[in-house]
Amino acid sequence: MQALKSLLILILPIILAxxxxxxxxxxxxxxxxxxxxxxxxxxxxxxxxxxVSFDWDLADLEDKDQFDADVVDVDAFTTTKExxxxxxxxxxKVIAYLSVGTIENxxxxxxxxxxxxxxxxxxxxxxxxxxxxxxxxxxxxxxNSRFNMIIQKGFDAIEPDNLDSYSNETGFPISESDxxxxxxxxxxxxxxxxxxxxxxxxxxxAPEFSAKFDWALTEDAFDQxxxxxxxxxxxxxxxxxxxxxxxxxxxxxxxxxxxxxxxxLRFDAIIKKRxxxxxxxxxx
Length: 284
Prior knowledge:
Blueprint: H1 2-17, E1 54-57, E2 71-75, H2 81-89, E3 93-99, E4 102-104, E5 118-122, E6 125-131, H3 136-153, E7 157-161, H4 176-191, E8 196-200, H5 206-209, E9 215-219, H6 221-224, H7 231-235, E10 240-245, H8 251-265, E11 268-272, E12 281-282
Parallel strand pairs: 1-2, 2-3, 3-7, 7-8, 8-9, 9-10, 10-11
Antiparallel strand pairs: 4-6, 5-6, 11-12
Domain Glycoside-hydrolase family GH114 TIM-barrel: 54-279
Signal peptide: 1-22
Organism: Dyadobacter luticola
């Protein structure tokens, strides 16, 4: 019996580490970082100013990749510590793309989320499901793991995606007030760990949160006509990175219509393909 107990002690962690998510998706736990706590001992972080240039590349990085922009936004999971260091060596600041409002079914940390916080499929991105951001206590181990990974890789900031759950069919009664509380939590979490953090879209939050977030990133703001709402960041000397997409406008329309307006607003504007590969169009 004692030998059996010893055997169970040896194999149980292996069984747990190779368990499946709530959807039966196999997860690779090799890259899972300790989710129990964060250092939370920092008093300063990267605070970009108006005038820095931006690029966004969520394709897997290659060692030969070069970027003209001052700031590069890349995937938090697929980008390695060595690649972040290489970008720093080029004089770049590096932002980690991170979903905080959904879970992608191919991420290796799916199992850190209780079933109760995983909601409906995100219609526009069927490989993702919405999360119940009201349950910060239940999300904390998952968030801690992601933030620890980002810290260990040496990123300068995070891009928190999918903050707009209150305007989507998530399966949960999430309100704008819930989102404001979640944003406050994320901002505190980032800053206490030496990370900058930006506001991603949600222009209705800008009047209050332009004082809290360190920069803003917009998608389709000029095409949809809400770019002026983000100008409040510029008045606080915080940059606005404005991204338009080729599936909504041509490069000519971007150059003719968007670039003059962006220059007037002092936004850094680029045009990208919707899958955010390496190609980038810039204002001249």
